[in-house]
Amino acid sequence: MLLTPELATIIHTNVAAALEEDIGDGDLTAQLIPKKTPGHATVITRQHAVLCGSAWFNACFKALDPHCTINWFMRDGSKVTPNEKLCEIRGDARAMLSAERTALNFLQTLSATATLAHKYVEAVQGTRAKIMDTRKTIPGLRLAQKYAVRIGGGHNQRVGLFDGILIKENHIMAAGGISAALKQAFLLADEDATIQVEVENMAELGEALDAGARLILLDNFNLDGMRDAVYFTARRAELEASGGVNLKTVRAIAETGVDRISIGALTKDVNAIDLSMRFV
Question: Which residues are tagged catalytic?
Answer without folding.
Answer: 101, 136, 168, 198, 219
